[in-house]
Records
---
Amino acid sequence: MSEIHALHSMFYPKTVAMVGVSPNPQGWGGTSFLIRLLDIGFPGKIYPIHPKADKIQGLKAYPNVQSVPEPLDLVMIAVSAPNVPQILEDCIEAGAKNVHIFSSGFSETGEEEGIKLERQITEIIKRGNLRVIGPNCMGLYVPDSKLAAWGVKPAGTGHLAFLSQSGGHGEILTAYAQPFGVYFSKIISFGNACGLQVADYLDYLRQDPDTRFISIYLEGIKDGDRVVPLIKEINRTKPVIIWKGGMTEAGSRAVASHTGSLAGEGRIWDGFFKQTGAIRVNSLEEIIDVVLAFMYLKPCQGRQTLLLGGGGGNSVAFADICSRQGLEIPQLSEKTREELNAFIRLAGNSTRNPLDLWMIQTDVNLYRRVMEIVMADPAIDLAIVDRLAGFGNFDDDDGVSKEEREKTLNEVNDFLSEFAKNNPYGKPLVVSMNLYGSDLLLAGTSVQRRLEFIKSGVAAYPSLESAARAMFRFVNYHKFLAKQK
Amino acid sequence: MSEIHALHSMFYPKTVAMVGVSPNPQGWGGTSFLIRLLDIGFPGKIYPIHPKADKIQGLKAYPNVQSVPEPLDLVMIAVSAPNVPQILEDCIEAGAKNVHIFSSGFSETGEEEGIKLERQITEIIKRGNLRVIGPNCMGLYVPDSKLAAWGVKPAGTGHLAFLSQSGGHGEILTAYAQPFGVYFSKIISFGNACGLQVADYLDYLRQDPDTRFISIYLEGIKDGDRVVPLIKEINRTKPVIIWKGGMTEAGSRAVASHTGSLAGEGRIWDGFFKQTGAIRVNSLEEIIDVVLAFMYLKPCQGRQTLLLGGGGGNSVAFADICSRQGLEIPQLSEKTREELNAFIRLAGNSTRNPLDLWMIQTDVNLYRRVMEIVMADPAIDLAIVDRLAGFGNFDDDDGVSKEEREKTLNEVNDFLSEFAKNNPYGKPLVVSMNLYGSDLLLAGTSVQRRLEFIKSGVAAYPSLESAARAMFRFVNYHKFLAKQK
């Protein structure tokens, strides 16, 4: 698409005015946005707007947007709610079309005054033909253009877009995802959506070459008729992952006091997901879980899963967990079992799926031999391998030193990293970290080992449940696409 | 109960013979048991049994159990499966009644030979009127009598019993629970249960004065007719918490290769839980989650929950999570909201339930004022308060230093600890730790802050989901008891 999208200048602004900044550097809201933009090295021009101040943060201040000497690509408004209508009128007068309203105090308060104010600004936006993000939101976070003034700094530019009706979720997701090497193309916190709607943002993200995956936190939508066909179309080339908040009655009431949206009924949303093929998740972590699968795995439509952990009790739990998430745990073929039984001692081990093989956990050669045999089994579509985070305060008293044990653990992990990426069968293999979280040391070790796997290009998960859930969704997405063809 | 229970001498043995120990200290199985018993300072007499050795680990060895010069309270067998029948015959000849068979290689292998061996030992046990734990299990773990030779050493004696068809689960649970100050009265890993059955152990735990809560990991039971009425009775005074493994088809197949049990059908177990009132859980962590509630909270039958976290998006998620777990999130009374609105700024905050009050998170006085008002509301039965683990790589740029922020966080936590234990309304208040787990530092901090809460006598949970789930089960238990009366 060679034509420049109407919203492009908002995401890559050369001139930004900030209304509602204070000469006091401790000021929250607009002032903290201004300080952070300077701090991050935003390359465009910034115009602080203040009725009296000459300079703010060393920048020349202007009394209003009309007095800024050049066209404005973006106006950020952080004044108190009752003053927002006047600023919008100023924008119309100044010919500034792109606006982000940070201010809250509108319909989300549930109070008459806020509802009235929201009606008023909606009218102004329409009349002035403004492109408005918000109100009651954090606006845009674009690492690529350094328009990224939220609490967590960008650590890189990436391919995940996040469209969110909660700014807090946007900040938390950034803090959570970046250490895993999952970076963002664009994050849009759009709040009460009095101006631009979900479909407008989606239309932008559809053509954005940096965006390969689109994640969405939604409370309610006002433009369902446009959104449904758009998502259906986009989802074919850019997987769309949606967390719909407010699905319970209590959650729906909370939505009303958050963004003033109507959350809508469960079965309407069931139909929405069925029709669009969008991937349904229930938390921010689950968004990243699914994205990791898309980043690292070859497409796969089968759900027959090999489980490899250790311990008979664990095997039962693992099989239950995966089945509940919709995966299937097939029996291995006779040939596979015969090949395994040739060198696996049956007492204390099991060569059935889930494999319960303590004896290979400390021997990378045996481990490799087992993996090569079982992944070749045509009954298997994908594998989940459960790994210990470490040994913590556990002592097996079997004469093997802790150092020796750690060394073997790492050797097997190294093999798995290689095998996950290059196994000759092209079957997805993901890792889950087995951790019981009362051990201070292991809590950190588990995250660290998970980070190591992910940074080496392996989809690794904080629990078997999260691994199984992500794999089910990944497989289902590819099945949906195949059916559409 | 003044009469001594038939199983007492197994749990508090004065003489133990260990069959299947090796002079080589690296030997697994029996040898590691022996070394650990010595290490922990087991006060009874230990007799290693070995066909040739004179001494093992400095103790005089005997060629067989018959040659031990005094009556044996417990014989532990760790020889290979085909040799087990002969040792059992020796026990009968020696008049030793109490036996723990560690050895595996029986029906759980699914092989003809193992199934035949299991039939053979079952016959010997019956004929000799032996009291046998196992085979294929870790046996007893009794901190009080120092018969505790598993991988994790006892850190104290406590009131939780764990009856488990998986020894691995026993070890993991010990490692997980003890750092929280949850200690054990008795752990019993009973494996394939060819001799003593679930009901026999329950009968012992019923009268055990040290046991106040009973947790069970079950794969299948052979003596359902005795177990159901027993659990129903015990549950009235000692809450019984059960994790039933193998509830899915794949899980049920895994059960077969683990302990050779038949896992049984879902609806039979549904009926079981409905009839007995036992608390159903799905993991080891969930056992401890429920136990913490019983340890620290006053009985409560209502499920109307106050939620206090922060952030509008979080409020929606919190309400959804708690509702899905079966709790209700009622609206606060007009009176309560008026009292809150008198000092809470509505823009950016919400005085509806879930409370979304960033402004009180850094002010312990405001926090206290809010808690005192909302907990007095008759619409509220209990409260879940979500707390930040810490600040990690998050920077709010609002002029507040990290040290200052940590200080306020701790002040509010201290207030909560006090208020949870002594609030004038006697309503349960539990804490959940809010953590997104990619931050190495926060992963540890979160566990540490959770430990601090728990050690100060507050039930604290690793996530809102786990807190809500535990509270629902706790409340349901008390409702069940009330209905029975």
---
Amino acid sequence: FLERIKLLFIPICLQMLHESIFPHTFLQILEYKSQNVSTADVFFPSSSFFFPSSDLLPAMDGDTKTMTFLQEVVDILLAYIVESFDRETKVIDFHYPNELLQMNNWELQDEPATLDDILISCRATLKYAIKTAHPRYFNQLSTGLDMVGLAADWLTSTANTNMFTYEVAPVFVLLEYVSLKKMREIIGWPDGRGDGIFSPGGAISNMYAMLLARFKMFPEVKEKGMSSVPRLVAFTSEHSHFSIKKGAAALGIGTESVISLGFVLVQGFVPFFVSATAGTTVYGAFDPLIAISDICKKYNIWMHVDGAWGGSLLMSRRHRWKLDGVERANSVTWNPHKMMSVPLQCSALLVREEGLMQNCNQMHACYLFQQDKHYDLSYDTGDKALQCGRHVDIFKLWLMWRAKGTIGFEAQIDKCLELSEYLYNKIKDREGYEMVFDGKPQHTNVCFWYLPPGIRYMEDKEEKKKHLHKVAPVIKARMMEYGTTMVSYQPQGDKVNFFRMVISNPAATFQDIDFLIEEIERLGQDL
Amino acid sequence: FLERIKLLFIPICLQMLHESIFPHTFLQILEYKSQNVSTADVFFPSSSFFFPSSDLLPAMDGDTKTMTFLQEVVDILLAYIVESFDRETKVIDFHYPNELLQMNNWELQDEPATLDDILISCRATLKYAIKTAHPRYFNQLSTGLDMVGLAADWLTSTANTNMFTYEVAPVFVLLEYVSLKKMREIIGWPDGRGDGIFSPGGAISNMYAMLLARFKMFPEVKEKGMSSVPRLVAFTSEHSHFSIKKGAAALGIGTESVISLGFVLVQGFVPFFVSATAGTTVYGAFDPLIAISDICKKYNIWMHVDGAWGGSLLMSRRHRWKLDGVERANSVTWNPHKMMSVPLQCSALLVREEGLMQNCNQMHACYLFQQDKHYDLSYDTGDKALQCGRHVDIFKLWLMWRAKGTIGFEAQIDKCLELSEYLYNKIKDREGYEMVFDGKPQHTNVCFWYLPPGIRYMEDKEEKKKHLHKVAPVIKARMMEYGTTMVSYQPQGDKVNFFRMVISNPAATFQDIDFLIEEIERLGQDL
């Protein structure tokens, strides 16, 4: 019988696809009936229409139970926060994946758990989490935990809405408008004019920029695809972030068309995009933006500045000269969740030309962007992005900015750069250390090798290199096992594994830097 | 002097780009020095290195101040939650954008605000926010506020980490692993095998699926771009989500290569992707997946199921037959933030083939995905996505699943579908209503026109249609001004504006449906 249905079904299905699927056709109804006994019973051992006790609805139960539960969770979180900032606490209670899978029952069940079980799950989750707020956690570009930012994120979760229209996020849409304008002013675009959007991270912001650049040069690409345009090529600095290549792969440009070594005009390829980096991920280096902008202008190429990491230095009078020329860019990625310690995620793409984002990405979904709404439709910003629903990432930045003021962010950034200079000065001539690049760091990145006494004086260069390559991974593994601190390491080109220290946590102090050095030496002395 | 620098700078800059920017060159240092007086002084009226009082660091101040502040915010949030579920409260306190911009000082300042000001800002933000938890808020596919989900999101903010590696998110990476496996089991893939990732929304999940399909058929596209592959064409149902077109535009395929009317083989174009919809955005219709899978199999085309809206029906024994055949798909988008009421955002892309996501998207960033780490590297999942940093979206789904069990989600989904059937039965023969499509809704979408008495008996069909087109926008505007309820409307093809009612809020009751009908009639009777 099922076979007969299928035979009948295929030609009619083609017809249905043609005419649109809905409304029901005879055959669809037939099919539904014939398959009404679900194959999924294995997932549902007990009967339907049962409401578990943990379905808390303040409107139904009165509030006591719900409020008590939420307050208990908050108490757990407050205790975790105090602990996270305490240097006596471990940064991490490390376990290997298979171990951790065994240490708790993480499986999803058919039956509901009690609220007490839920609280236990919350505690277990935090017990094995990394304390990213810990003053000795230096592992990523995003560290620290700002209390106002955290409060703002809690509020965002509670408001639980979506950025696509003013209709459902009136305040947040306005705050995005206000904040993007302020950021454009700081970039230096006249009167803060231009466009922008908050996106889910720097990689997506960079990809959006590349998308805009291509659309600007070849608007027909939107409808006709890459077959309508010449072979494109994008340029970027050697140590630029891998998201530039990811973007090129996704957009159908291909990673081979991302030239990272220099500016070479390849016959038959049209250069459309230059991504200059303001603060590379590993070295924290800044490309010379003014010079790059001259070239972009000469060849009429979109100039993007990937300031995901370094963009925040625009907030500092002492350091913003490193981005001189940024005001000449067509677009800028700037992630406040990195150097400004805004809770994850908060990444902005700023665009100089107004209207382009809308033209590039809009599809006019009529269920969201009705043209006969009763308010100013320019505040329905959802069609500027590839995303449909967009998480509210703005409130935490906005509230922190209110709390600190521009000068508060500046002080925080300056302090982190001062700490990294302190680290640099401390180790540059210290026995057993070698710097990966010469000169003072431009950002808070300090890249260095630690050479344990045992290999410090090895004569065979190759042998020494081979040993040195293993030092950082072992020290890092020990750091995690002891849980005392975390710092990243990596190889780069022909350079063997080195430590990349970064500081973005305003809770860190000079003493924490001292601690890091002592800890590396303690954990590495026997290697 | 600056002119001379520039002249000197350009050729050397080319050289620097070629050799990589870092380490410093003489010229860079020269440039930095010459521009050490920043042009940005306008943004920073007062002196540097000033720490505002609102920089709360539990480790520095002791905890009283921080904890008091956070508790005060929590109290504001708890009060807001109680209010949100109260039917006597307005869903929205609506103001036009320009009005709202005036009603509060939303501007960002140079100077810090006091913590009291911050609390005032929190209250103001919530005052003008949409109460998306309100039992009479029906405006989007994502409504409601689950208390366990909310608690989980607060914990996520507090843990403030990133999904790219096990190293920095051990528990969350494991919970993603556990939950994706469970979702694949429910889809029906053997032993829950396969792959997947949580992404920032259904549009990105759909684009990721398209990216995988293209890579599967033409892996060389990653390096060589679209010029290395034939002209591609994708198929999708007529009422599919606009993200399929957005994806095609972004990936360089072009929107004209998305065929939404049926399955036509176009000379010289290679079909590579079919996106079937399980629960269309407006009508809630389900494509016949079994029939579509037969076609995909025959022509060797990637079958994607966009179940962003309808995927959750897999949790219901009563309704999952509507997705029969989903187990034949190559990839499935499923957004728990819609029908399962998980706080925004929570969207999963599930993929049948293991390893493909990694191959398609990986760029081996050596600062994140070191190959000599001391744990099982398969848990470093970050390279599977286009994103670098990835927000932790898993914990709220996981904790809710624990709290409700599979049967709790089932009960919640069944209830919402029952409410929509109640609405359908109530209005299908009621005077003044016309249904937009025939037959019982397949999902909770009920699409209908309300004809006020004044136009109910108009004889001139065109005149009537013209009037009717204006009815829904006016009623909707009045709903927002009164703040009593919110429901979406839209035109579709040659159909004039109609209401699209959707129910995903488990707090809604039969009485709320009655209220909606009464309210539409009250607000529309004079039109």
